Please model this.
Amino acid sequence: MQEYRKILIEKDQVVPIAEKMKKEGRFLVMIHGYIDKDGQMDVSYEYAVDPAIESYHVVGQMELPSISEIYDTAASWPEREINELFGVQFEGLDTSQRLFLPEDMLETQGRGHIMVTPLSELVEKNKKEAQS
Amino acid sequence: MSYIVPIGPYHPALEEPIHAKLYTEGEVIKDAEVFVGYNHRGIEKLATERNAIQTLVLVERVCGICSHSHALTYALAVEAINGIQVPKRGEYIRVITAELERLHSHFLWLGIACHIIGHDSMFMHIWDERELVMDLLEEMTGNRVNYAMVTIGGSRRDISDELRRKILAACDKLEEKLKRITEIAVTDKTIALRTKGVGVLTTETALKMGAIGPHARASGVDVDVRRDAPYCSYDDFEFAVPVTPNGDVFDRVVIRALESAESIKIIRQALDLLPEGPINLGNKLVKIQDGVAVARHEAPRGQLSYMVVGNGSFNNHRISVHVPSYKNTPTIPAMLRNNTVADAGLIVASIDPCFSCLDR
Model:
C-alpha cells in the first residue's frame, strides 16, 4: 500500500519546501483544497517522495504564496482551480481568466450551475436572500 | 500576415470539447492558448452527498475510457483511510481489468492517431484488435464501458477457470497482432512523414511543466507509478517501462505500442499466478473514517490521483480528483509553437487528451 505522510506547515514554509522538492527532482502530484470539519480552509501540497506521498497542509489561510514560479503549470492550474472554488488568493498568480467555472459565475449567483464547493460569499448571499 | 485561428470547442478531430487559440504568422503557429471547462459537471460536489459504494458508481462516469482507473483509485484511497487489506485474488483481478483497460485505451488512441494522419486502413486494423479486448472486458465484467469491477475491499466479479484460459489464448493472439502493428508503426513512411519532428516536447520542458504518463515517457522522463510506488500487488509482476528520447508525435505512437506489449505481459503473469481465495470482503457498507488519504494509480494516460477526506460518516466529506490530462493539457501550447496549423489537430490529440476527465 502506498504510504501517505501528513505534515502540518505554516504559510511561510510553502515556498522553501517547494524549492527543496524541485531541487530533489520530486513531482508535484497535486495541490488540493478543502474546507475541513471545523470550517477551516485546508490547502495541501502533495509531493511524490516515492514510494510515499508527502503531504504538506496549510490550515486556516486564505492568502498563500504561489509556487507557480517553481512548478510552472503543474502548480498554477490547481492554484487557479482552488482560487475559483474557494476564493483562496495566491500571491503572484494570474487569475484574470476562469479555468473551469463560467465567467459570469458570480453575477448569476451560481444559478443554473452545479456548485463544486460553496463559495463563501455566495452562501452568505443566499442565506440573506432566504431570510428576507 | 498574422492571424488568430480558433480551434474548437467543437472540432472534427477531437470528440471532446477544448478551445485552442492559435496565434499564427502565415501558416506557422507562433503561440497558442488553451481553454477548458466546457464539460464541468460538478462530480466532486456530487460525491460529497454519496456514500462509498454510490461514489464508485459516480466516479466511474468521470471518464468513459478509463472508468476502471477512477473507481480503482477512489477505492484505494478509501481503503487507505480505513486500513482495509484487500484479498490477493481481488487485487489481481483489479490489475487484470486495469491492464485490459490500458490496452483498449492505447489501441483506441493509436487508431485515432492513424485516422488523423490519414492512414485509415491502419486505423481499421487497430480498432479490429481493440474489439478483441472489448469482447474480453465484456465477458469478464458484463459491460463494454463502466465495468463496475471494483468494490471497497476487493473486486465484484470473479474470473472463472474457463475465462482465464480464454483470456490467455486471446493474449497470444493479441501479442502476435501487436507485433505486426508495432512493426508497421515504426517502419511505415506515411506515419513517419506526418509525425517525426512534429509537436516536440523536450525532456527539459516536460520536467518543467510536470508532464506525466506515456506523454512524459515519450519525452524521456522515466516515471511510472506502477513501478515507483507499487500498489495492488504490482510489485509481483515483471514489466519494463519503455522510455523514448525524442518527444515528438512519432515517439508517442511508438511508446503506446510498446506499453501495450508490457500490459499483455502483466495480464499473462497475473492470470498464471492468480491466487485462490476470496475476491472481496463482503458487501457491508463502510463508514469513511475521520482522516485524509491520497491514492495514486497509473491510468492509461498517466498518474491519476484521488484525495478522499472522511469525517466518520458514510458520506465523503470531500473528494478531489486529479487526472493525468490536468498535467498534460498545459503542455499543448509548448508543443504547438513553430508547427504548422495543419498539424495542430494531431498535436492536440497526441497527448491522448481526456477533457471530460479534466473538467470533472
